[in-house]
């Protein structure tokens, strides 16, 4: 069905000449349904559906990319220019994948290329990807088949499609323990990477602000809820509102947002250095090395900004009038407790990075490979909902594994502010929690933490996409 529909509009696709105006003219006339000399988004979308190559958002991106006079449509000149430039990029990519220079791409070459991009797949999955592009059934893709498959795809190479699967820290859930973003050499040389970091930081700021009440409730329950003093969601919110009003639900959010930028920057720079150290200059990094690099980068960033984590916890738990602001809080802690207080809970926080990042990445890789195994016959592009689903599930699993350490960290950070005379170690605090509250005492506050995951991820993703458009890195 797919091949029949596609051949309806591209009957001469395999004999096209990239410089032939006639070929482009024929295609343009078929897409220009109302014969006004222009192809708009609706006409292009209908044409792509008829060809069987429709991809969500593709028509909009193609028109935006080729629309030079910004009238919302493509005339013949704009249409031709876009396709010629796009085909040049496709040709370069095809040649880079055709390793033995025989003019065709086979499953082994697909497998090798994906492996270099950090995606290890077996021969069966490589054949499925190949089959999605193969028109004549030879299980090999020549230039014409490659061009026809990607001609109306905004991504011009396999690398861009697979990059959809990069586990991006843009999915901000308030816990910056995930593997950092990865960028191509082109993005690094052009400066596009910093725009993506800025977009991610803004998305994280909006996301954290939107879910701050749930985050404060989580910290409140981690510190104050016990077996004898159970705090429900309703009771917790009521206590906080009665004590400080509705605005008190956002206590600690200011510094929680403020620490995003330095943590993201440090983590990204450290990640790049650790990748080079573990895999060598110019080499592609394997999954286990990527995890190790990410964990070490996370540890480096956390070490640098950890005093801000302590301030965030203290400001989140503060009573009305206790501190006039973050500087007053820092000055008070320094005066009463000394410099060491800014690193209370540092060990469990550091240890929590390993299970969080490890399980998060492992689950994500498993979900990704499972999806590719079943769906690559149709497309290697997973789509937004699949990505959000995989990111949400993997992050949730990571939280489940590291949550007890996060709870211990929070209690150690808050200990002095509660006027506690004893300052127990991590192990004794864990032991006491289990003795007094049982195993599930290690998961106090996890309900509001889970409740914020989906809205946090959704808000973060939407803001990120708008920021990319605003900064000119996505059209």
Walk me through the structure.
- The protein is mainly α and 475 residues long.
- The chain folds into 2 domains: 2-163, EF-hand (Recoverin, domain 1), CATH 1.10.238; 166-470, Mitochondrial carrier fold, CATH 1.50.40.10.
- It has helices at residues 2-9, 21-31, 41-51, 58-66, 76-97, 107-116, 123-133, 143-150, 158-162, 185-190, 192-210, 212-224, 233-244, 253-258, 260-279, 287-317, 326-337, 346-375, 384-414, 426-437, 446-451, 453-470, and strands at residues 38-40, 73-75, 104-105, 141-142.
- Strands 1-2 form a two-stranded antiparallel ribbon. The chain has a two-stranded antiparallel sheet with strand order 3-4.
- Helix 2 (21-31) crosses helix 5 (76-97), helix 15 (260-279) runs antiparallel to helix 16 (287-317) and helix 18 runs antiparallel to helix 19 (384-414).
- The longest helix has 31 residues, at 287-317.
- The chain is elongated, with a radius of gyration of 26 Å.
- This is Calcium-binding mitochondrial carrier protein SCaMC-1-like.
